[in-house]
Amino acid sequence: LGFNGRDGRGWRFLFGSAFVTLEPAKNHDPGACLIVAVSAHYLAKGEDEQSFENAMSIRIIAGRCRGRSLRTPRGDALRPTPGVVRERLFNWLAAEISGAVVLDLFAGSGALGLEAWSRGAARVDFVEKSPQHRQILSENLTLCGLDPRTRLIGHDALQTLSTSLPCYDLILADPPFAQGWPQRLLSVLLAQPGPFRPGAWLYLEASATEIWSAADLPAKWQIHRQGHCGDSHYLLLQQRSSA
Fold it and tell me: What's this model's pTM, rounded to 2 decimal places?
């Protein structure tokens, strides 16, 4: 195990053919993520450290695509939902995912939506604006057996939500931080009737200053679960059966 430097995520070590990054959490609260998160990138034959700098990978946690590596661009432009948060979210939704129709609204690499697909969702649609991220997302969809031509349905979240959409059982929203997205989404996503089936679920991930509070929500919606991992705060909302 050799020290290989420090990047924006933590301390990086070279362990055989793998780069391992140790990421300290921002706090040690019981509800926070693990004190140290470990991620590894295994070098393929002929791959060098420069290619590691350009792209990293994350893995599907469970289901039919379990263990499959997803590509994600290197750097701060994309902030994939940490694995510990994805696992917690889908444990909360364990009884709801099979057969569900899902929308991954700020898809990035597709990690959230593809986790839902892997765990038995009947259909997952993806929205992503960045051309670079859309290219990587298309590759990840293909890797998981989905056709990007039919599942990658839009570029802009607000524009997509303003069109005629199917009704979803679950919408996943992990927008860029510090751009006012939660406030912009509040009136669109939670408006009547909205693109939801009765009893639907909505997941939001945002910074501490942007995350919704119970007071922000219409009477039709309630906070089912919530938590935080470092700078990321997340809510799982459920639509009330009657309001």
Answer: 0.77
